[in-house]
Amino acid sequence: MRLLKNRYFQLLGAFFLFSFVGVVGKMAAMSGGLTMRFFLFVGLQVFLLGLYAIIWQQVLKKFDLVAAMAYRGVVVILSLIWAIVFFQEEITMFNIIGSLIIVAGIYIVSTGEV
User: pTM of the entire structure?
Assistant: First the structure.
């Protein structure tokens, strides 16, 4: 239960949820037009975005806005993971280099070191 009260766990949970919105959106796009499956995925996407908005507002009470936005770069890395897991996409060297730059930026903002 202490883990759920940890502000970093809550922040990463919000980003995890937000990154999954992209997966659901791509599944909607792959559903083949205005089918029931399409509307199911779009509805799920709207629901997840609403849930994320509520969680994000609660997380912002516990973080400085600059730090919270810097940590949001984690979404890009999670999106790369989802691309591999759900869609068997190939990750390029440019994706990896970009992810490393994002991680370096998060580190710089969170520690104040330049």
Answer: 0.76
